[in-house]
Design goal:
The structure holds two protein chains of two kinds. Chain A is of the alpha/beta class. Chain A has a single domain, classed as P-loop containing nucleotide triphosphate hydrolases (Rossmann fold, 3-Layer(aba) Sandwich), CATH 3.40.50.300. Chain A is built from seven helices and ten strands. In chain A, the strands form two sheets. A six-stranded mixed sheet of chain A has the order 6-7-8-3-9-10. A four-stranded antiparallel sheet of chain A has the order 2-1-4-5, with helices on one face. In chain A, helix 3 crosses helix 4, helix 3 packs parallel to helix 5 and helix 4 packs across helix 5. Chain A starts with 8 loop residues before the first strand and ends with a strand. Chain B is about 55% helix and about 20% strand. In chain B, helix 1 crosses helix 11, helix 3 runs antiparallel to helix 9 and helix 9 runs parallel beside helix 12. About 0% of the residues of chain B have low confidence. Classes of the chains: A alpha/beta, B alpha+beta. Chains A and B meet through helix 2 and helix 3 of A and helix 1, helix 10 and helix 13 of B.
């Protein structure tokens, strides 16, 4: 079900560029991208290596700031926010899922999932309960007290998804979420993302995987830091 | 900021990841703190001993005696007993003056014997040195005037010679004469160390008899005394009184080489020595904690480098710069405080060994342990600042990309 065209923009990028200094030269990872992510939408970003996908995702995730252009999150200008305010925005409104899971090895599964709650200032007595609820949602409650090293790839990525969801963020960003998984496990993760989307979560994912990208409502193809094409699969 | 208990739990978890590395990194702090705790215990032991000696001599008591001769069998010259009388008249604020004859003599009673310090003196000695009577009475003026053969026993002499019964009324043989016991002194803290500034007399080991009753042998002046002890009414008057007393005794005796023992002066001298000792201890502390702190900084920088990606992940999940900094600061503080605790234990152990084998008295000031831990904490924070600041400043995007 595609979102109604009048659905409000959760994220709006206007002519965003990101330039990195490389020695004496400057390299433009993004060279003027305008993009809207609507509330409840599932958007896939594809493109060859070096096309600016990851930079775009970093900017959408408020981890990086554009060199120029305008970035609005839920109608608020992001450029003017302080580092602390950006951290708060990431904490409350954005969930990250990484290709390599990026679980913290010395913490248990439940503690990994609790981590965003620590920084959210949630009351400590709620941490465990909310982490278990998030793990329940991805079907991993029984692994709560295991270490990341004891998990299979699929379980690790489910843990990461639970961690991304635990603060109930408006936007879920996934960077190659199936890239480190075999195809059967990758399908499971893809199905999980579909299910989250069906329940109304806004999802932006970056992938090389055409099949995964085709499960999104909208597909943006990047090349050389620009949007080359936009499709509705 | 995260609650401290959460930070401590997280920190402990991270440090346990590398048990060996964490343990090795705190060795510098452990040995530094141990050295300082052990040295301070020795210093504190010496200080307390000085105080105990001064307490046993009395802070307002002054002793005048001929300076002991450098070598040779000749006993030091005696002072005329009359000098004691002039002291009582001339010295301002004087409260009690007692002339003393002293001899090391064997004592016997009921088949038991002991080497004691026989002191011939007058009734004023009680007030001059603040003696307490446990039972019976002290020497009276009449005993001195009548050369009565009565004796007052020090606490340990009474215990050794009369272990079973009450010594009052019993007789003991002191040198060649028999004395009747009329009193027993209260036991008092006695100087036990060696090589200290004050050669305090152990009154527990002494037997007090009337001045004329102590046979000093034929080789000395009949009316000579070995020491004059007097007490002044206020501690402030001690220094001036000692000066005057020295002049008076010098004039009365014609003896140039006099020794005037003023506990207050000795205390001051001792404090000067203590200050030097404290500076040395402080220097050792500073150097070892500097070395220990550099070790901690080194290991924390390695830890930050190794966990760069964790920093990136935490930043992505909403950690602010200061949350990251706090996490690493708590880790470095945990390391040094653990080092401080282990070092304190090791230092106390060391102090106990020094006391057992070298025989130096040691004592632990409770504030010193608290200080050691606080300093350890300060080292953790101080040397953890740069690594923590470095971690907090990492760019989240770069940090996440790091393998």
């Amino acid at each position: 079900m595609p979102p109604a065209p009048e659905a409000p923009s959760l994220v709006a990028l206007r002519d965003v560029a990101r330039v990195y200094p490389r020695g004496t030269r400057e390299v433009a990872a993004l060279a003027g991208v305008s993009l809207d992510v609507r509330e409840g939408e599932k958007l896939a970003i594809m493109g060859p290596s070096g096309s600016g996908k990851t930079t775009l995702l970093s900017i959408l995730g408020c981890l990086d700031r554009p060199t120029r252009g305008e970035h609005l999150f839920d109608g608020r200008r992001v450029e003017g926010l302080s580092d602390d305010e950006l951290s708060r925005l990431r904490n409350r409104a954005i969930g990250f899922v990484f290709q390599a899971f990026h679980l913290i090895p010395q913490l248990t599964v439940a503690e990994n999932v609790e981590t965003p709650l620590l920084y959210a200032g949630a009351p400590p007595r709620e941490w465990r309960e909310r982490a278990l609820a998030a793990l329940e949602r991805v079907g991993l409650a029984e692994r709560a007290d295991h270490r990341p090293g004891e998990l299979s790839g699929g379980e690790a990525q489910r843990t990461a998804i639970a961690r991304a969801l635990v603060t109930e963020p408006r936007l879920l960003l996934a960077d190659e979420p199936t890239g480190n998984l075999d195809s059967a496990t990758g399908d499971e993760i893809a199905a999980l993302l579909d299910e989250l989307h069906a329940r109304g979560r806004t999802i932006v994912l970056v992938t090389h995987n055409e099949a995964l990208a085709r499960r999104a409502e909208r597909l943006v193809r990047l090349r050389d830091g620009r949007i080359e094409a936009e499709e509705r699969p | 900021m995260l609650p401290l208990p959460v930070l401590v739990r997280l920190g402990a978890r991270s440090l346990r990841l590398h048990k060996l590395r964490s343990s090795l990194s705190i060795l510098g702090v452990v040995f530094g703190v141990a050295a300082v705790v052990a040295m301070s215990s020795v210093g504190e032991g010496a200080r307390r001993e000085t105080l105990a000696q001064i307490a046993s001599l009395g802070i307002d008591t002054v002793t005048v005696r001929p300076r002991p001769r450098e070598a040779g069998p000749k006993a030091p010259a005696a002072l005329p007993a009359a000098a004691a009388l002039s002291l009582g008249r001339v010295v301002p604020g004087v409260r009690a003056v007692a002339p003393l004859r002293v001899a090391e003599l064997p004592a016997e009673a009921g088949g038991r014997s002991a080497a004691v310090i026989a002191i011939g003196t007058t009734s004023a000695y009680r007030d001059a040195t603040r003696l307490e009577i446990a039972s019976g009475r002290f020497l009276a003026d009449l005993d001195v005037d009548d050369r009565k053969r009565v004796a007052v026993l020090g606490a340990s002499v009474a215990r050794v010679l009369f272990p079973l019964g009450d010594p009052l009324g019993e007789t003991l043989r002191l040198g060649g004469d028999w004395f009747q016991v009329v009193g027993v002194l209260e036991g008092r803290a006695s100087p036990r160390g060696r090589g200290t500034a004050i050669r305090g007399r152990d009154l527990n080991r002494s037997v007090l008899v009337p001045l004329p009753a102590l046979d000093r042998g034929a080789d000395r002046q009949a009316d000579g005394v070995d020491e004059i002890v007097f007490r002044v009414s206020s501690p402030e008057a001690v220094a001036r009184a000692a000066e005057i007393a020295e002049a008076v005794v010098r004039r009365a005796s014609g003896e140039e080489a006099l020794e005037v023992i003023v506990p207050r002066e000795i205390l001051r001298q001792r404090e000067r020595t203590q200050r030097v000792f404290n500076v040395v201890t402080g220097a050792v502390a500073a150097i070892s904690l500097l070395v220990g702190g550099i070790g901690i900084m080194n290991i924390m920088l390695a830890s930050v480098a190794e966990r760069t990606r964790e920093v990136g992940v935490r930043r992505a999940l909403g950690a602010r710069r200061r949350d990251v900094a706090a996490q690493f600061l708590v880790e470095s503080s945990l390391l040094t405080v653990t080092g401080g605790v282990l070092g304190s234990v090791l230092g106390l152990l060391g102090a106990a060994l020094i006391q057992a084998f070298a025989g130096w008295p040691t004592a632990v000031h409770p504030l010193m342990l608290a200080t050691a831990l606080l300093v350890a904490l300060a080292v953790g924070i101080g040397f953890g600042l740069y690594p923590a600041w470095h971690a907090a400043g990492l760019d989240p995007v770069e940090a996440l990309r790091r393998e």
